[in-house]
């Protein structure tokens, strides 16, 4: 049976080899008969440029390149890997898509995205997002020496972790979720009744109304504690979860 796969928020990093192993196992086990694989952002914990010589990046590129010889692999940038450019995409055999894309899923027009643009109540993050979406800002960042970019990335991760912890202490975690009113607005803008996204790390299927008609929002899960993916056929849309492999 034909099917299409969607993943997001793996946050691959050298200090989490279990997630990398789970990803490689997923590619080997699930993509053999798939029509396509869509990666909806934050494949990596951080991305400081295509010139980063970290071995993990080459390992992942080789695995994706092998898969891309069997089926198309598409990539939408997340807020952690927005600096991933054509050099790495070509090495990995992946096709870069715009931040918001409507695709035909077995006859169903479906909007796909990372999902961070829907979190409009997180004003501090949205302000930063407007900055890093500017081509001149990205060009400036990538022109810096690799060592400086590594230092900036470490500080950004620390700041992000502190902000998340503060939201949780203030019982304001909803700020980090999508804004409910924004979802039907965006879906109506693109003329769809189906939406797939990641970013919030809250896997679920949400029922809603768009232009007076029933609609669905599929949220992909992160891979910190388990693998998570969406498998879509012409008859069924199913969120799947598998435990991470044990590490020695």
UniProtKB/TrEMBL annotation:
Topology of this chain in the membrane: Peripheral membrane protein
GO-annotated cellular components: cytoplasm; extrinsic component of plasma membrane
Compartment annotation: Cell inner membrane
Its EC number(s): 3.6.1.54
Cofactor field: Mn(2+)
Gene Ontology terms for molecular function: manganese ion binding; UDP-2,3-diacylglucosamine hydrolase activity
Catalytic activity, reaction form: UDP-2-N,3-O-bis[(3R)-3-hydroxytetradecanoyl]-alpha-D-glucosamine + H2O = 2-N,3-O-bis[(3R)-3-hydroxytetradecanoyl]-alpha-D-glucosaminyl 1-phosphate + UMP + 2 H(+)
Keywords: Cell inner membrane, Cell membrane, Hydrolase, Lipid A biosynthesis, Lipid biosynthesis, Lipid metabolism, Manganese, Membrane, Metal-binding
Binding site for substrate: 79-80, 122, 160, 164, 199
Gene Ontology terms describing biological process: lipid A biosynthetic process
EC category name: hydrolase
Domain Calcineurin-like phosphoesterase stretches: 5-203
Residues that coordinate or bind Mn(2+) 1: 9, 11, 42, 201
Domain of life from the UniProt record: Bacteria
Pathway in which the depicted protein is active: Glycolipid biosynthesis; lipid IV(A) biosynthesis; lipid IV(A) from (3R)-3-hydroxytetradecanoyl-[acyl-carrier-protein] and UDP-N-acetyl-alpha-D-glucosamine: step 4/6
InterPro entries per UniProt: Calcineurin-like_PHP, LpxH-like, Metallo-depent_PP-like, UDP-diacylglucosamine_Hdrlase
PANTHER family per UniProt: UDP-2,3-DIACYLGLUCOSAMINE HYDROLASE, UDP-2,3-DIACYLGLUCOSAMINE HYDROLASE-RELATED
Family: Belongs to the LpxH family.
NCBIfam families: lipid_A_lpxH, PRK05340.1
Main function: Hydrolyzes the pyrophosphate bond of UDP-2,3-diacylglucosamine to yield 2,3-diacylglucosamine 1-phosphate (lipid X) and UMP by catalyzing the attack of water at the alpha-P atom. Involved in the biosynthesis of lipid A, a phosphorylated glycolipid that anchors the lipopolysaccharide to the outer membrane of the cell.
Designated name of the protein: UDP-2,3-diacylglucosamine hydrolase
Organism, as annotated: Alishewanella jeotgali KCTC 22429
């Amino acid at each position: 049976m034909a099917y299409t796969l969607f993943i997001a928020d793996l946050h691959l990093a050298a200090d989490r080899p279990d997630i990398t192993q789970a990803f490689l196992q997923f590619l080997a086990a699930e993509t053999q008969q798939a029509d396509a694989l869509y990666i909806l952002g934050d494949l990596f914990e951080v991305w400081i440029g295509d010139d980063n010589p970290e071995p993990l990046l080459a390992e992942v590129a080789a695995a994706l390149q092998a898969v891309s010889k069997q089926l198309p692999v598409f990539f939408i940038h997340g807020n952690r890997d927005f600096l991933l450019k054509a050099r790495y995409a070509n090495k990995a055999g992946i096709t870069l898509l715009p931040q918001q894309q409507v695709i035909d899923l077995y006859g169903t027009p479906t909007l796909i995205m990372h999902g961070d643009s829907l979190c409009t109540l997180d004003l501090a993050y949205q302000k930063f997002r407007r900055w890093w979406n500017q081509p001149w800002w990205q060009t400036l960042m990538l022109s810096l020496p690799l060592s400086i970019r590594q230092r900036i990335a470490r500080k950004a991760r620390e700041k992000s972790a502190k902000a998340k912890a503060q939201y949780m202490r203030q019982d304001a975690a909803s700020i980090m979720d999508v804004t409910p009113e924004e979802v039907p607005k965006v879906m109506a803008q693109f003329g769809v009744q189906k939406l797939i996204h990641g970013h919030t790390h809250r896997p679920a299927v949400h029922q809603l109304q768009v232009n007076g008609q029933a609609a669905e929002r599929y949220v992909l899960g992160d891979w910190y504690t388990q693998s998570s993916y969406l498998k879509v056929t012409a008859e069924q849309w199913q969120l799947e979860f598998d435990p991470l492999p044990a590490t020695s």
